[in-house]
Amino acid sequence: MNNTFYFLRHGKTKIDKNAPVSRWVLSEVGEKQASQLTREGVFDDIDLIFSSTEDKAYKTVLPIAEKLGKKVIKLEAICEINRDNSGFLEMEEYEKTIGQCLKNPDKSFNSWETANHALERFSKQISELDKEYSNKKILVVGHGFTINMYFAKLLGVLDKVYERLSRNDFADWGIVKNQAVVKDIAKQA
Fold this sequence. Notes:
Layout: E1 4-9, E2 13-14, E3 25-26, H1 28-40, E4 48-52, H2 55-68, E5 72-75, H3 91-103, H4 115-132, E6 137-142, H5 144-155, H6 161-165, E7 173-177, E8 180-183
Helix pairs in contact: 1-2, 4-5
């Protein structure tokens, strides 16, 4: 234990109305963000890298992994809240569904996974990683909902997840050590 977790939100995605959200890929901007992350030096001393199984997360961390000569371990449990069953939602419906999911975390809207289920599986996986390793710097590359819910849980502000989501963007990152937020992924209001 006593690990330091760096949580990185994947780069900007390319919206594809014909593909499930979990299969979306990085846009050109997202690819540039992934490349830029290797030049910032923030992740230069990472010991372990874990990524969601979704391509947009994996491709975000791949340049970092290649620079460091590290393997990326993909984990299903750190994937985004599952939204594939709803099909593509136009922005207005998407925003409405986000609000409903976060205000009613035990209910499913538009056939999405419940927010509480996503948070539970994500939190459990991070806890397991923390127990498995000791004194490591661990990079976890995932998604906006699950990372923001996790940070909000640690900060005791789960009722403010929706507002926190609006204060961070693709390729933002935060740090957690000993179950405490050291650097928040959400920018200050």
